[in-house]
Amino acid sequence: MSPSPAVPTILSVHRAALFVFCLVGCQGQTAYQPNEVEMLLAELTPAESAEVRNAIDWLFGGPDAPRVPEALPVDAALVNRAAGRAATQQVGHNEGLFRQHCVRCHGVTGDGRGPAAFYQNPYPRDFRRGTFKWKRTYRGQPPTREDLHAVLKRGVPGSAMPSFALLQKEERDALVEYVRFLSMRGQTESALIRIAVELEGEDSKESMLDPENSPAHSRLCEDLVERVAERWRDANLDVLTPTEVPSPSPESVRRGGELFVSRRAGCAACHNGPPPNGAFENDYDDWNKQVFLLSERTARLRRQGPRAELLEAHVRALTNNLPPRPAVPRSLPGSDLRFAADRVDLFRSISQGIAGTTMPAVGPPSPSDQLGPPAQGALTPQQVWDLVDYLLADRSQQITETLRSL
Amino acid sequence: MIATLPRTETPPAPAPPPAQSRWPHRWAGLLCVATFPLVFVGGLVTSTEAGMAVPDWPNTYGYNLLLYPWRTWLFGPWDLFIEHGHRLLATGVGLLAIGAMASSLWGGAPRAVRRLAALALGLVVFQGVLGGLRVVLVARELAMVHGCVGPLFFGVTAALWARSAPWWDRSVSASPLQKPAFGGSLLSALAPLTFAQIVLGAWIRHAPADPSPRLFATVVLAHVALATTLLLLISVALWATYSKSRPWEPAPLWVVRGIAAVATAQFCLGLGSWLVRYALPGWAQSVMGTLSTGATVQAAQAGGFLQSTVLSGHVAGGALLFALSLVGGMLVGRQRGSRDSATEYQVS
User: Is A137 helix (H, G, I), strand (E, B) or coil?
Assistant: First the structure.
C-alpha cells in the first residue's frame, strides 16, 4: 500500500517544525545541576565533583525520571506527578507541575537559579539546603507538609512568590512533595560532598566514590539518605504552639515598644537602625553567604597568581548570575510583614527566628532537642507577645510608643 | 508632448478604478476583528499555563475538535476550557481566512489584496500546525514561535482590511505633492521594531529553564529599552501630525493617534505585567518601603483574574500596536509612491 500524498507533506511539515525547534535552540534542561558553590568551597577536584554527581544521580535519578529512595518519607507517586515535562493525559490531571509552575524562578534543580531570578528580591528560594523561612516548626527543623502547603496557598506577600490557591489541592500536594524531595536530594548532595572530601586521603581504590559498583559505597550513600530522611519524618517535627494567646492591650503595646528599642531584645538595631534599615555590611543570609564566601576566597586566590584562573571563571559565572546581596532587615514598625498571617505566626517568627536569615531566635528550642533541664529563651513568651502587639498595633500608636520609649 | 506641459499644472486625475465588490473588505474586517480575541485568548493560554491541557492534536482527547462534548468543555477544568476554546476560535478564524481568500479571488480584488489574503491563509495554517506541534512534541520553544506568528498573522489581517478598503484608492490622490515627511519615516520603522519587541516578549514569556538569570535579565532590559525607544519614536511621529505642514491626510492621522494611545496603554500594561508576575524589583522595593503604609500587599494569584488579564492584555496590546504600525507604514508607503510618481510627472 503506497503512502497517501498527504504523508510526505506532514513529514516535511514536521521536519520544518523540528528545524524551527533547533533554531530556537533550547531543548529545556533535563538534568539536575550540581551544587557548584559547595563543591568549590570544599575544593573538590573535577574528578571528585564528577563522582559526587554520579552518586547523587544514582540515588535520585534525573528531573524527567526521578528515583525516590525507599528511606525517603515522600510519596513517590506525587513526586512523579510533579516531575517531568508539563503534560495532561486525562481531563484535569496535570503532570509536570513543577516545570509548569515553579521552574521559571526556582530552576529545574530547585536551586533558586531559574531564569527569572535576577531581578527578584529576595532571590527565589534554594530548596537544596532544606531551609525554609515560613514554617511553624522549631528552629533547626525542616518545615511540615502543612507549612509548605500554606506558602503555596497563600504566596509570600511582598515577594514574587504568588499564591497557588487556584491549583487543585492534589496538585499543591504534589508540588509540596516534590519540594521536599528536592530538599532531601540537596542535603544528601551536601553530605556526599563532605564524604568526598573525607575519602580524599584514603588509598586510591577506596577514595573513588562509586556506589554503583562498590557495595560499601552503596551502603554509605543509603545511610546518608537515611540520616537526611530522618530529620524530615513527621514524628521528628515539633510545631511550636503557644500555650496561651493573650489579647492585645494598650499596655502590651507600650511594653512591646519599650522592648523593641531596648538592648535586651535588640530589634531596633537591625529593623529601625541607621540606613539602610540597620543593614550590616557583609551580613548575608545563608543562601547568599556561601556565594559571598566563595567570591571572597577567589579574590584572595587571585592575588596568589594564575593557579586560581579556573576557580575564578566558575565563581565569576556564579556571582554574575546572582550576585550575593547583603541582608536588608525589614524596616519596622511600618513595613509589610511578609508571611505573618496572624498574631501566632508573628509570635513564632520572633520566638524561633527566621531560618536561614540573620534574624535570631529569642525563644527556647524544641523540647525534643533539649538534653538537660528545660532551657529558657532570651525573652519570655509574654515579652514576645508584647513585641507582637507592638508590631501589629495601629501605626500612629506605634509611633507614639516609640517616641515615648526613646 | 508631455514635456510641453507647464510645470505648475497638476497631474491628471487617475482614471476611476473599476467598480469592485465590497465583500473582500467585509471578509477582511470580519477576519481581523475575530483574530484579535484569538490573540488575547492565546495569551490566556500561556498566562494560565493551559497549553498542555489537551494532550493530542488535531483531536481533543480523541474527539474531533468540533464534536468534543460541550458540557466537559464548558464545565470542566479551567485550563481545558481555555485551550479547547482557543482551538475552536482558531478554527473559526481559519474558516474566515478561507472566506477572505475566496471572496478576494471571486470579488475581482486587486492583485495586492489577493496576495495578502493568500498570505493570511498561509499564515493561519502555519500557525495552526505550530500550535499543534507544540502540543504533540511537548515543546515550549514552539509555543514561543507560535506566540510570534500570532501577532504577525493579526497584522496581516489588518493590512488586508486596509488594503481592500474603498478609501485606499480614493485617498491616494488627495495630497500627492506634500513635502517628504520625517514623521512618515518614523512610522515606517515602527512595524519592524514592534515586531522585534513582540519576539523579545515571547521569549520572556516562554523562556525555557536553561537560560541563565543574567541572560533573562538582559533580554528583559532589551525589552524595556526597545519599549522606551518605541514610545519616543511614536511621540515624535505624533508631534509631526500636529505640526503645521501636516505630512499625512486623514487616514494616517487616526492611525498615528491610535498607535500613540495603544502604545501608552501597552507601556502601562508592560509595567503591570512585571508587577503581577514578579512583584516589585529590589530597587523599587527600597523606594516603596519609605512610602509604605504598613498594610501588607497580598501576593499575586498565579493564573488569577488580575494576573491573566494583565498579561494577556499586554500580549494583545502588542499585537494591536504591530497591526496599527503595519497599516500606518503601508499608508506612508502608498503616499510616498503616489508622491514620487507625481514628482516624476512634474519633472518630466
Answer: strand
Chain A residues lying within 8 Å of B210, measured CB to CB:
26-29, 115
Q: How far apart are CA B56 and CA B135, in angstroms?
A: 7
* DSSP-derived secondary structure for A217-249: HHHHHHHHHHHHHHHHSGGG--B---S--PPP-
B232 phi/psi in degrees, rounded to 5:
-65, -45
Identify the bridge partners of residue A163 per DSSP, sorted by sequence position: B301
Q: How far is CA B87 from the centre of its chain?
A: 19
Kindly report whether the peptide bond that precedes residue B12 is cis, defined as omega within 30 degrees of 0.
no
Q: How big is the CA angle at B337 (ends B335 and B341), to the nearest 5 degrees?
A: 115
Q: Would you say the pTM of this structure is higher than 0.80?
A: yes
Angle in degrees, 0-180, between the axes of helices B213-242 and B182-206, rounded to the nearest 10: 150
Say what the ipTM of the complex is: 0.84
Q: In angstroms, how far is CA A131 from the centroid of its own chain?
A: 5
- Residue B1 exposed, middle or buried by CB count within 10 Å (0-12, 13-18, 19+): exposed
CB distance B52–A276 less than 8 Å? no
Angle at the Cα of A96 from the Cα atoms of A95 and A99, rounded to 5 degrees: 150
Alpha helices by DSSP H, listed for A233-308, are 250-261, 267-271, 286-304
Residue with cell 471571486: B106
Question: A62: which 3 cell numbers?
Answer: 534525573
A330 to chain B nearest CA, in Å?
A: 9
Q: Which of A20, A26, A166 sits opposite B208 (nearest CB)?
A: A26
Closest CB from B55, B142, B302 relative to A162: B302
Q: pLDDT digits over A105-114, tens only?
A: 999 999 999 9
Number of H helices, E strands in chain A: 16, 2
Rounded CA-CA distance B139/A30 in Å is 13
- 8 Å CB contact of B209 and A335: no
Copy the grid coordinates of residue A143.
518545615
**AA identity, residue B332:** V
Residues of A in contact with B219 (CB under 8 A): none
User: Residues A24-59: pLDDT tens digits?
Assistant: 444 455 789 999 889 988 888 888 899 999 999 999
Per-residue pLDDT, averaged over B298-326, amounts to: 94
Q: Residue A13 is placed in which grid cell? A: 511539515
Nearest CA-CA partner of A93 in B131, B52, B290? B52
Find all residues with CB under 8 Å of A107, minimum gap 6, and list them. Answer: A29, A33, A113, A114, A117, A124, B209
Nearest to A21 among B76, B139, B209 (CB): B139
Could you tell me if A271 lies within 8 Å of chain B, comparing CB atoms?
no
B51 inside 8 A of chain A by CB: yes
pLDDT in tens, A294-310: 888 877 766 666 556 77
Please name which of A49, A23, A21, A17 lies closest in space to residue A36, comparing C-alpha atoms: A49
B201 to chain A nearest CA, in Å?
A: 13
DSSP A93: E
Residue B151, pLDDT score: 97
What sign does the CA torsion over B73, B78, B81, B84 have?
A: negative
All three cell numbers of A295: 567570591
- Check: CB of residue B268 under 8 Å from CB of residue B205: no
